[in-house]
Amino acid sequence: MPSKLKVVLFTIIFFASSTLAASTVIKLDLKGLLQYSDLVVVGTVKSKRSYEEKGRILTSIIVSQERVLKGIAPKVIEIIQIGGKTEKYTTYVPGMPSFTVNERTLLFLEKPKNAKTFVVTGMSQGKFKISAGPDGKTQFVIPSSLGGISLVEKTPALPTLKKTDVRDVKLHEVVTSLDALSERIKALQE
Description:
Blueprint: H1 3-18, E1 23-26, H2 30-36, E2 39-53, E3 56-70, E4 76-82, E5 84-85, E6 90-91, E7 104-110, E8 119-120, E9 127-132, E10 139-143, E11 149-152, E12 176-177, H3 178-188
Parallel strand pairs: 1-11
Antiparallel strand pairs: 2-3, 2-7, 3-4, 5-6, 7-8, 7-9, 9-10, 10-12
């Protein structure tokens, strides 16, 4: 086989395989997350349960909200996401955020039309873990891994987002204090 053909085949296989295990979503900065979210809350995961419904595996995550940064939130919030693990089946959806019981989180949530539950905005882009810093007092927001997500920039066919704030470019690459991020969220809503 000629070497040029080998290179072309390798390139096709490489790029095809790199997108097989990824979910494609619009890249959202902080303004985009706020724009698409009905709620932004700080809360603690109280329970997580996977179940089968209509041939799909779904996971219900119950969060007790501690603080509301956008919207009007009930004290207990239910998030439903596709994927999970039951006794018989495991379904993994690349890019879905993972949750653990007793984990403190900052969540950007949207409520699908006619739904009683919420989904995380932008898949893993809308979930941040909260952890105490070295002093044991300062709370820090730790971005979720964006592994399994192919982020795409908006196009004219997609809803227009406002210009990206330079400070938000690295939102999912840096750890910041919860107080500082809360202030930015508040300022963007004014």
